[in-house]
Amino acid sequence: MIKKTNTRSNITNNQSRCPVVYYPIDNNDYESIRFYENNGYTVKTISLNGNPHYFAFIPVETQEQARRINQAFIQFYLQEQDSFQLRMDNEISIDKMSDIGYGSTVNYNDPATILENLATMKALFYELNSLTDGEYHICQMIGSNVSESEMAAELNIPYKELHKCKQKLLKRLKHQLKGYR
Description:
By secondary structure, the protein is an alpha+beta fold. It is built from seven helices and three strands; from the N terminus they run βαββαααααα. Strands 1-3-2 form a three-stranded antiparallel sheet. The protein is elongated.
């Protein structure tokens, strides 16, 4: 004879639990961690993609409020990841710079030169980030020393159209970056 048992989970709705926002804290930012803990907030480490990340648990009034704020943090995180990936895609190694003729005749230990270069690179990064996919692809090919005839063939457009587009694009970038160097 088989005895039937009624299995029910004992899930209770704890009304004292309030919704929380998972506020991200930069790794190794121990000052922020101490701040949140000293002000009565819980700080926990959550593993994302195998890497530990710190979060402060900030209580909010409604679940909807928590959902909206947490969604905004996720969106911001994804945009930061895309921005980081874009920067990585645009980096170049010192070896490749040497191969294309870069010579270190400038004194890069001079703080003014360093700041000038950083400002120029930042401006260039933002201008490149504002380009359409097609314009960005043309810039990548220019940077890779691809000839205009090869570019036209790859983009499947007439040579004259590519030349005109390239000149217009370079003129626009030159105008946007004229205050730098």
